[in-house]
Amino acid sequence: MDNTIKTQGIVIKSSKFKENSKILTVFTQELGKISIMAQGAMKANSKALVYSEAFSTSEFILKKGRNFYYIISVDLIDSHYYLRESIDVMAVGFYFLDLVDKSIPEAEKNEKIYNMIIVALENLGNNIINRLDLVLGYELKLISLIGYKPYLLNCIDCHTSNSIHWYFDNEKGGILCSNCKTRDSQYIDSLYIKQMMNYISLPFNKLSNDIMNFDDKLKLNVLIYKYILDKLDIKELKSWNMLKDVFENSIT
């Protein structure tokens, strides 16, 4: 009986195993996030050097072992080499992968997220969409797909759509009016709310946002990042710190 599995997957990260091998964390179309043993991948002349790098997308034929999946064969689809040619682009790409790694449990299939990652990386590589718009769209689409879509239509408590000021509450997962705001909720401009809706609903290639200036986008990114940390119950993402430095340096 054939117990092999065929699936496409993108390498999220890798770690050295023993002297010459790697353990790949791969987000796959059919199996979700899994660990794959890439034997001999650290050898200088290994064919695994290309497909075992972060961002590389391949079609795998795998066999499940006790702790890892083992590669029977692999065909590289796209190395996404162009994402490594610029530090700025690479910082965005690593943040995308890190977010998926931290937000998706092992072996939980989610084809919508898999397809979203592929499209996001393609848009990152073609350098047409503003990178900060791409990041904001990616963050909000991902957090929505894993079940934490922020409620932005009206006050999440009293459901009024009329308020002089609005406040975003991480714990409640949406906006509050002036009457319902809490001690922990944060003021949010109504323009930010409107653009958050657009970032969630519009496809990546339509995300160019000329309504908000760069500084406002950075502030919105901080708000969304804090919301993500709260929902994922983590303290920080080192990849976001690197990303933040890239964006801040671009305006100095």
Automatic annotation (TrEMBL):
UniProt keyword Disulfide bond present: no
Gene Ontology cellular-component terms listed: bacterial nucleoid
Residue ranges of every copy of the DNA replication/recombination mediator RecO N-terminal domain listed in the record: 1-79
Membrane-spanning residues: none
InterPro entries documented for this protein: ARFGAP/RecO (IPR037278), DNA_rep/recomb_RecO_N (IPR022572), NA-bd_OB-fold (IPR012340), RecO (IPR003717), RecO_C (IPR042242)
Gene Ontology biological process terms from the UniProt entry: DNA recombination; double-strand break repair
Keywords recorded for this protein, A-Z: DNA damage, DNA recombination, DNA repair
Keyword DNA repair tagged: yes
Entry function: Involved in DNA repair and RecF pathway recombination.
Protein name in UniProt: DNA repair protein RecO
Naturally occurring in which organism (per UniProt): Soehngenia longivitae
